[in-house]
Amino acid sequence: MKNCAICLNSMKAGQGHAIFTAECSHSFHFHCITSNVKHGNQICPICRAKWKEIPFQSPAIEVTRGRTRINNVSLPQNDPWVTVLRRLPPPRVDTSRHVSSLFQTTEPSVFDDDEIIHYQPETMENNSSLNDLIADNSAGAIDLKTYPEVSAISKQAWHSNFTILIHLKAPHTIVPKQVGVDQCGSQMVPQHSRVPVDLVTVLDVSGSMAGTKLALLKRAMGFVIQNLGPSDRLSIVAFSSTARRVFPLHRMTDTGRQEALQAVNSLSSNGGTNIAEGLKKGAKVMTDRKSKNPVSSIMLLSDGQDTYSLSSPGAANSRTNYQFLLPVSMHRGSGAYSHIPVHTFGFGADHDAVAMHSVAETSGGTFSFIEAEDVIQDAFAQCIGGLLSVVVQELLVQVECIHPRLRLSSIKAGSYKTSLISNERIGSIEVGDLYADEERDFLVTTDIPVDKSSDEMSLVKIKCVYKDPVSKELVTANHAAEVKILRPETTGQLVVSMEVDKQRNRLRSAEAMAEARAAAEGGDLAAAVSVLEHCRKQLADSVSHKAGDRLCIALDAELREMQERMADRQIYETSGRAYVLSGLSSHSWQRATARGDSTDSTSLVQAYQTPSMVDMVSRSQTMLIGSPSPRRSLRPVRSFPARPIPR
């Protein structure tokens, strides 16, 4: 066990103490070493090496408004990202004012100055080589499978709430051959190997972001910039007390990347937190643009609570109206598939998790909880790993009853919009975009009537319709999947489908998380923990869990983690609420979010990660900007002590 050389106490993970690792590789408690160097001592107490970089001289843990802030982590001077920033012109800041001049210079009233799109679908008809590439990329089709709850029901039996599982898997990405690396060390790939994106990042630069938080944000943004291609376009919006577009929607060519990095380098922290203004400005970039790439998204990061829109004078009950933060044009119900998802990132212990979750849920995005501040780059990497691999758009799943006496009882699809029409004989699920290799599972229930007329019954047929993001053409599955069951005179011991069972466990777990969160918000943490424990026992008794199913094992690990984070009110307020909301976001959309140690390769909680996401996170964890050397893998430092919950 490692001990701090200053206080001689252990430095075991999970004890609530931040760890500082110096450039000479020796480690100390953060609060011990900051005390040691506060008078300018830059000599390692162990090896006597002279340090070029000393830790930020601030308390390792600050308690603000009853919340524990996670410590900052120092960036070493030999960090290649720091080297990149040194090469860029320094930001121009008006130090005589409370807010930097960045927010006080004029900007255009209409953001129609987006750079022309290099990717033009209409020019593809006369390009044979490009058509070949499109054909390769469009060759894959959605893999559609169905699973009835059981394979047979007696002719004499009536079966209520019979479950049918619809399983979808998106086609995989065709990975082109590497043709070299650019001057920053990033892979260069063919121009049209995937559809390009329009990405707007809305970044909190309020006073609480000062110091290493802002440095880590800049490094994470550097990673995003270096991994966007020349057909992708990026715009950067920064907000504190007000908001400003600091970089227009430009293509990430070599010049575009350099200019974007310079814009990131110009960011400085000051002022309050006006999330609504930041989102309004980000939405304006999207709505004012003259042209659009096939994929569009917004990434919002904040470490605090909105000090303007949610607490404005005279706004009765506005504290609970979190949807007010998001412009109406960006709400998911504002038009069929016309919304732009906002993927939100709550940074540290003091962010407003409820607000960030609400913004994501309302827009169709995901909410990630960045508990350890040095994991921000991995969280961004996971998000863009998905955005840069969209292979299906505007996916609509249609379910139609075949047997004349059947009706659909329910469609369980999480946050996806569902509908039942034609006397409940036809149902639909609006899925939208899918990333490469991404999977979706939906449960449909119906009542199976007595039927003595045949030995087989056709229940429903499933059809998928979607848009190919490359060709822009609508694609319909070659044939509708038909679900049938046998109707013998008698049946023996029937075995429930393993696939149906584990998806029931997933839905049951998500419902337990929501119920536990409601109890916790009502002040009854004991009831919340009890709900989760009951769900874990149900999981343990299920067929799929007993068979060692990986999804069920991961669900149990996640439920246990939530129990630990509901151990007392302080832990729940500090990290439990955000962790649970991020989990709910992930399960409701069946899409990966970052929370706790979910981006670590050894974590059990890695639900819904796609190969593209894993690859991008791996790049983040092994490569630094402009350098091929590996980065030390970082596991998040929790802001609460680990407390095992007995089974």
UniProtKB/TrEMBL annotation:
Pfam families: VWA, Vwaint, zf-RING_11. The keyword Zinc-finger applies. Residues 627-641 have a biased composition (Low complexity). Residues 198-384 form the VWFA domain. Residues 4-48 form the RING-type domain. Residues 626-647 are annotated as: Disordered. SMART domains: RING, VWA. It comes from the Eukaryota. Keywords: Metal-binding, Zinc, Zinc-finger. The keyword Magnesium does not apply. CDD domains: RING-H2_WAVH2, vWA_C3HC4_type. This is E3 ubiquitin-protein ligase WAV3-like isoform X2. It comes from Coffea arabica.
